[in-house]
């Protein structure tokens, strides 16, 4: 069939405009909402997809009034090229569960594409009574979500300041599904708490009830917390990604159920506790922050010895409570007893009920003179949260009898309150001898001594020693009276000790970070003169800022404390431990220069 040129040109023109119109249609931007169904039972789930053919920003979903969001938003993107034409779609999907029967409107969602705001159309949904057999099989995610629950069980919702509470995280699993794996997505930080984790070495499956139904459960995590602030405190949620095997309606060749695997996220939810202040009524003046139930004693290894021999005096607190969060009372001793800096020892184990064990200071004492010296009794006070009352425990006076040694004329052994620092001159029985009446004297030549360099040296030496002795005496007196300085020196010594201990335990995560945390805390005791019970990170940051420490040094110090906490429940490499040790040494050096 012959086609004239005129008809051919008309045909080409029509084809060109058709292709042009198709290209323009393909470039048109669309944004729409699609429902899996517009009518469903109250026991069914609704899926809604918000789709667009071009990528956009600031997606804003509707409120979904009348529905609970079971899952979402999940995002999917599809892109392809067919015959040189690009096809693109991006979808935000939600799974919704109706909360009541009736007709509901799902309002508009918005998104910004190429600077313009696009809105989806509203959608009408009718919710009917529960249906016996939903029209479609529930998704694997929905089944897993209904049969898997992560719960944080808190032992006490209203503790006192520094009273122990435990948090036990349990994963409840219905017998109808299986859990094959899980991993932590977000571990709680426990701000405003002193925390100690009790590692779970083996996951033991147990049977229990959840909301009245039979479940299997495993304990994933156990933590003991001591609140360091009063008021309402927040326990952050623990979140897990769990791989779940969900049964389907399909059967294998042998008639067994066919399972499908899916990953879902579960959270323990945020928990709040209301921390009560310790009562002011009946609070002893010497109360140092101890909360729990304790015993107190002061003992010595011996009560009778010779001068220059040594004895050990132990100040010990034992029992159950915040054993790491208070300071032991100090001994007050006569000046005639030389006392060395005490050595701190602790034997503490942590259970779900809190810390229990002993802490002690061991003093080495060396008497200088013969006599009887009393070690006065001292008082230890604590708050018992069970009886909600303060208790004070007193040690008995211990008399130390030094049976051999030089006498001290100023020592008053009958009066325990007389601690004189004066030392008398000791006389010997053979001090005076018979004086000879016949003297064999020889003349002294002036050339041999008087006027010589030796004469002037011995003549001037006492004059030079007098100011040196005065300066040395004043300095010694200032050191002896500077109790705060001695405490700072002690804390600095402990900080160096624990930092040295941390270096020796490199490679052992738990021991290293416990030693590192102690070193940091004792350094703060030395420099900021604050009690251990005040060690919340917010308080530390505030006090360091008041001391005009550089912001970078403060952040480094706080990050080290966070690493010490994080190391209790996260793996840390030996490289990371070495970096934290080097960082601690550098931070302490920088802060020393600034202070």
Q: Could you walk me through the main structural features you see in this protein, from its secondary elements to its overall organization?
A:
Residues 1-23 form the signal peptide. This is BatD family protein. 25% of the residues lie in helices and 37% in strands. It is of the alpha+beta class and 595 residues long. It has 4 domains: 5-136, Immunoglobulin-like (Sandwich); 142-275, Immunoglobulin-like; 292-402, Immunoglobulin-like, CATH 2.60.40; 487-594, Four Helix Bundle (Hemerythrin (Met), subunit A) (Up-down Bundle). Strand 8 and strand 9 (116-119) form a beta hairpin. Helix 5 packs parallel to helix 8. The protein is elongated, with a radius of gyration of 40 Å.
Short description:
Keywords: Membrane, Signal, Transmembrane, Transmembrane helix. A hairpin with a 5-residue loop joins strand 18 (239-251) and strand 19 (257-267). The chain has 595 residues and is of the alpha+beta class.
Based on the model shown, name its key terms:
single chain; about 600 residues; alpha+beta; Immunoglobulin-like; 4 domains; five-stranded antiparallel β-sheet; 8 helices; signal; BatD
Task: Give the SSE map.
Elements: H1 5-27, E1 31-35, E2 39-41, E3 46-52, E4 57-60, E5 67-82, E6 85-98, E7 102-106, E8 110-113, E9 116-119, E10 123-128, H2 140-146, E11 148-154, E12 165-173, E13 178-186, E14 193-197, E15 206-210, E16 213-227, E17 231-235, E18 239-251, E19 257-267, E20 271-275, E21 292-300, E22 304-305, E23 311-321, E24 337-339, E25 343-351, E26 354-367, E27 371-375, E28 379-384, E29 389-394, E30 398-402, H3 453-481, H4 483-504, H5 509-528, H6 537-546, H7 551-566, H8 574-594
Parallel strand pairs: 2-10, 22-30
Antiparallel strand pairs: 1-3, 3-6, 4-8, 5-6, 7-10, 8-9, 11-12, 12-16, 13-18, 14-16, 15-16, 17-20, 18-19, 21-23, 23-26, 24-26, 25-26, 27-30, 28-29
Protein name: BatD family protein
Organism: Sediminicola arcticus
Keywords: Membrane, Signal, Transmembrane, Transmembrane helix
């Amino acid at each position: 069939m012959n086609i004239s040129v005129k008809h051919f040109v008309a045909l080409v023109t029509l084809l060109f405009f058709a292709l042009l119109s198709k290209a323009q249609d393909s470039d048109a931007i669309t944004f729409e909402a699609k429902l899996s169904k517009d009518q469903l039972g109250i026991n069914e789930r609704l899926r809604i997809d918000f789709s667009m053919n071009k990528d956009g920003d600031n997606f804003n979903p509707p409120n979904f009034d009348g529905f609970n969001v079971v899952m979402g938003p999940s995002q999917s993107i599809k892109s392809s090229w067919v015959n040189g034409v690009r096809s693109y779609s991006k979808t935000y999907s939600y799974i919704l569960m109706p909360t009541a029967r009736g007709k509901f409107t799902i309002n508009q969602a918005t998104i910004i594409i190429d600077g313009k705001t696009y809105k989806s159309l509203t959608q009408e949904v009718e919710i009917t009574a529960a249906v016996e057999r939903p029209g479609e099989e529930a998704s694997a995610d929905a089944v897993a979500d209904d049969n898997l629950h992560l719960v944080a069980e808190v032992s006490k919702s209203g503790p006192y300041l520094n009273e122990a509470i435990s948090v036990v995280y349990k994963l409840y699993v219905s017998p109808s599904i299986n859990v094959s794996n899980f991993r932590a997505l977000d571990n709680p930080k426990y701000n405003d708490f002193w925390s100690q984790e009790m590692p779970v070495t083996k996951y033991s499956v147990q049977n229990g009830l959840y909301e009245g139904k039979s479940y299997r459960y495993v304990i994933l995590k156990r933590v003991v917390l001591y609140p360091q602030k009063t008021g309402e405190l927040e326990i952050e949620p623990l979140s897990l990604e769990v791989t779940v095997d969900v049964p389907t309606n399909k059967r294998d060749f042998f008639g067994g159920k066919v399972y499908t695997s899916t990953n879902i996220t579960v959270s323990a939810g945020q928990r709040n506790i209301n921390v009560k202040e310790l009562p002011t009524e009946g609070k002893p003046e010497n109360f140092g922050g101890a909360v729990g139930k304790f015993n107190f004693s002061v003992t010595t290894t011996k009560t009778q010895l010779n001068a220059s021999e040594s004895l050990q005096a132990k100040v010990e607190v034992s029992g159950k409570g915040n054993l790491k969060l208070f300071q032991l009372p100090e001994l007050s001793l006569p000046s005639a007893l030389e006392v060395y800096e005490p050595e701190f020892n602790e034997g503490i184990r942590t259970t779900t009920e809190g810390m229990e064990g002993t802490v002690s200071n061991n003093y080495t004492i060396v008497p200088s003179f013969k006599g009887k010296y009393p070690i006065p009794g001292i008082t230890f006070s604590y708050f018992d949260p069970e009886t909600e009352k303060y208790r004070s425990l007193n040690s008995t006076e211990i008399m130390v009898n030094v049976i051999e040694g030089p006498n001290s004329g100023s020592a008053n052994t009958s009066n325990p309150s007389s601690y004189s620092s004066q030392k008398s001159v000791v006389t010997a029985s053979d001090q005076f001898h018979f004086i000879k009446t016949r003297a064999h004297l020889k003349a002294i030549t002036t050339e041999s001594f008087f006027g010589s360099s030796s004469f002037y040296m011995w003549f001037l030496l006492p004059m030079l020693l007098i100011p040196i002795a005065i300066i040395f005496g004043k300095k010694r007196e200032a050191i002896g009276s500077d109790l705060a300085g001695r405490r700072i020196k002690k804390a600095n010594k402990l900080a160096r000790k624990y930092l040295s201990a941390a270096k020796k335990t490199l490679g052992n995560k738990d021991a290293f970070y416990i030693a590192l945390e102690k070193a940091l805390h004792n350094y703060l005791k030395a420099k900021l003169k604050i009690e251990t019970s005040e060690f919340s990170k917010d308080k530390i940051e505030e006090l360091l800022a008041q001391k005009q420490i550089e912001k970078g040094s403060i952040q480094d110090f706080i990050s080290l404390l966070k690493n010490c906490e994080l190391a209790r429940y996260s793996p840390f490499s030996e490289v990371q431990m070495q970096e934290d040790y080097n960082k601690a040494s550098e931070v302490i050096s920088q802060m020393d220069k600034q202070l």
